[in-house]
Inverse folding.
């Protein structure tokens, strides 16, 4: 099955008003690549201004709470993200799983709430270096996926178009280390099996992105791997100069 490539930037805790020009440059450059879907997931403080000023590039959040509203200091609901103009959100990034102690159950509830509200979701999973070195990466990440996946009945119709997985080995995030094409291919194929087991044919339509130190130099090799449908990009998404070559590599793949 052919799936359109999807390249998403994750700005993490980077970006203030003076960076809006960079977001405009990324939007303009991405719009000229017609066969790739792109998006930028920004700090909450920039979402509304970015979304209002760059209608051609979907803007997303980096996390969402599962509740509609309530006593959750510091959190953002799906309705709030939508109200600010966001079209999607990341859930389960390893920096939140580790830093904020988020569990698979938390991630599943967040994904379900976001999909039910009409937001796209990028659900992140990935193994630690210790798990990889112990030879347990595939089984561990498959189990993480199984436990984090939104239940099919929650938003069955939304799942193929609105829902993507990002496989991000924790040891590759922000380190300059990249998983080998063989290891990426093995993992993505194993994850595809789990998606089909969970959702039937719709599981074949869900895009699986790779994340972990993707840049202009390694993107083409990564996009050539079977079952790699795009990338979640951190550091190299902060400037148009670094991000657009990755979008172009996806276009050429
Ligand atoms: C990420 O934040 O999801 C990520 C993959 O970061 P980096 O590209 O910097 O490794």
């Amino acid at each position: 099955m052919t799936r359109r490539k999807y390249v998403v930037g994750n700005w993490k805790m980077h970006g203030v008003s003076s960076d809006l020009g960079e977001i405009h440059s990324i939007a303009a450059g991405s719009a000229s690549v017609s066969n790739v879907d792109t998006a930028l997931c920004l700090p909450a403080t920039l979402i509304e201004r970015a979304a209002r000023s760059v209608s051609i590039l979907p803007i997303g959040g980096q996390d969402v709470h599962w509740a509609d509203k309530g006593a959750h200091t510091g959190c953002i609901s799906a309705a709030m993200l939508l109200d600010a103009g966001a079209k999607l959100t990341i859930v389960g990034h390893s920096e939140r799983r580790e830093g904020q102690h988020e569990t698979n159950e938390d991630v599943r509830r967040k994904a379900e709430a976001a999909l039910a509200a009409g937001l796209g979701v990028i659900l992140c999973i990935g193994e630690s270096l210790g798990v990889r070195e112990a030879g347990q990466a595939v089984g561990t990440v498959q189990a993480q996926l199984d436990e984090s996946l939104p239940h099919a009945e929650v938003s069955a119709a939304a799942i193929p178009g609105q829902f993507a997985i990002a496989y991000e080995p924790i040891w590759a995030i922000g380190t300059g280390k990249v998983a080998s094409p063989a290891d990426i291919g093995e993992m993505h194929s194993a994850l595809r099996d789990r998606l089909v087991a969970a959702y039937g044919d719709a599981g074949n339509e869900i895009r699986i992105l790779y994340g972990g130190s993707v840049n202009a130099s390694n993107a083409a090799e990564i996009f050539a791997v079977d079952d790699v449908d795009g990338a979640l990009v951190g550091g190299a998404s902060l400037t148009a100069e670094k991000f657009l070559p990755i979008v172009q590599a996806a276009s050429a793949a």
